[in-house]
Amino acid sequence: MENLVRIVGGGLAGSEAAWQLARRGVAVELYEMRPQRATEAHASAHLGELVCSNSFRSNVLSAPAGLLKEEMRLLDSVVIRTAEAHRVPAGTALAVDREKFAGALTAAIEALPNLRILRQEVTDIPDGLVILATGPLTSPALSQRLISLLGEEHLYFYDAISPIVTAESVDMHIAFRASRYDRDGDDYLNLPLSREEYYRFVDALLAAERVPTHSFERFVPFEGCMPIEEMADRGKETLAFGPMRAVGLSDPRTGKGPYAVVQLRQENRERTLYNLVGFQTKMTYPEQRRVFALIPGLARAEFVRLGSLHRNTFINAPLHLLPTMQWRRRETLFFAGQMTGVEGYIESAAAGLLAGINAARLLAGREIIVPPATTALGALLRYITDPERKRFQPMNVNFGLLPPLTLPLRGKAKKEMMARRALADMAAWVRDAEGAGHPSESPPTIAAETAAAR
After folding, report:
1. Contact indicator for 82, 117 with CB cutoff of 8 Å
2. pLDDT per residue as tens digits for the range 262-311
3. DSSP-derived pairing of the beta strands 330-335 and 129-132
């Protein structure tokens, strides 16, 4: 077997896989079709461009996203390393300046030894050792090849993108800086709505023209990225209990809590751009401008990016993949990223990370490995590749995937103990997998505390 791995797709998963391979001395050919062929959502030719939110979600260990990121740090994730270098204020969340992040990630991958980036579309699965990480926007030609290869049509759903506005166009006489219960300082701009303003907005949202779904396309919405108008279809109060929930906030102008609120999250370090949190949409562009102008504070908003809708493709992972990320019918073909059914930036990068590690191990004749089921990554990969699962939908990392503790803990205490157990097990696994001398160590205090919880 030649000392070469071909990676198809230069998103977060493909970039992470390339990093893991190169740091292990493996030659890499990374294929990325942009800018030769554009996608429905990308705006640049950078590797790892973020097309939805600019947030990698919580950094808190008692949150599943925070735990997964900490596990990825133990595995020397280039995505997490780059995100931390280009973060913008977002309270306890890890949010980034998306242009600086993508530029820095591209530079880091381009600088890797023994790596060659080929800017061309791949329409068939290459021979040899391959990691397929083309993501949710896989080109039609390659999608057709995968349909033929896997023996069945892909499952797919639609992903909606939130709009971004300029900070100077937000009415700061209405907006106020705060976070719910003051947990995240004042990193968010809040636009309060009275009961009347809320219902006027919802009525306009429900009546707005939407981008149609073609008859041959099956709309399978992922709950974590549901278009806001789809949520409103479930009932007029749905948004008030969802992304427009005002609990824990007080309007400084009145000293009272608003009926509903729209939160804006900082998009770049300069605080010149903000995105509407949870406002993914498939309304037409003219309707977006009209409907969002009804939100107090956005009457004269300047939209630098309107919301949009694009197809997200993922395979039936329980039928086709092993937890090692290998195709069940070809050990030299790995899948990685969102197309495997993991949902979210960090989940996609983590899947690419493991695919890169295992491709390097296969090339070296070493045992293929999977993190323990007690870790966030190990639990997630076992979930998406469980052959007993008959109805498969994309999944974010969550504590419900991890094995239960033996101690009768609840709430935050339970999550913190599960996180401690996961990190201890991940550190030990990394040490065993990589060999002696690896910098990751299992802290004795954590090991002792988690022993009783198993």
Report:
1. no
2. 999 988 777 888 999 999 998 999 999 999 999 999 999 999 888 887 66
3. parallel
For 433, the enclosing helix (H) or strand (E) is helix 411-434
Sign of the CA dihedral with 373 first, then 378, 383, and 388 last: negative
Name the DSSP class of 366.
P
What single string gives the DSSP state of each residue in 166-233?
EGGGS-TTT-EE--GGGTTTT-EEEEEE-HHHHHHHHHHHHHS-BPPPPTTS-----GGG--HHHHHT
Tell me which residue has tokens 């086709």. 320
- Output the CA–CA distances (angstroms, integers) from residue 401 to 127, 136, 326, 412, in the order listed: 35, 23, 21, 16
Please report the domains of the chain, with CATH numbers, ordered by start residue: 4-154+315-403 (3.50.50.60), 160-311 (2.40.30.260)
Question: 12-39: per-residue pLDDT in tens?
Answer: 999 999 999 999 999 999 999 887 776 7
Distances (CA, A) of 55 to 11, 135, 213, 221, 407: 16, 18, 28, 20, 33
Q: Could you tell me if 395 and 384 are in contact, meaning their C-beta atoms sit under 8 angstroms apart? A: yes
Q: Is the pLDDT of residue 178 over 70?
A: yes
pLDDT digits 0-9 by tens, 189-242: 999 999 999 999 999 999 999 987 654 344 445 555 688 999 999 999 999 999
Residue bearing tokens 């061309």: 120
- In the three-class reduction of DSSP (H, G, I as helix; E, B as strand; rest coil), residue 155 is classed as strand
| Residue 26 backbone dihedrals phi, psi, to 5 degrees | -95, 135
The rounded radius of gyration (Å) of the Cα atoms in the chain is 22
Report which of 334, 350, 330 is spatially closest to residue 342, judged by C-alpha positions. Answer: 350
| DSSP structure class, residue 31 | E
Count of Cβ atoms closer than 10 Å to residue 277 Cβ: 19
Rounded Cα distance, 316 and 320, in Å:
6
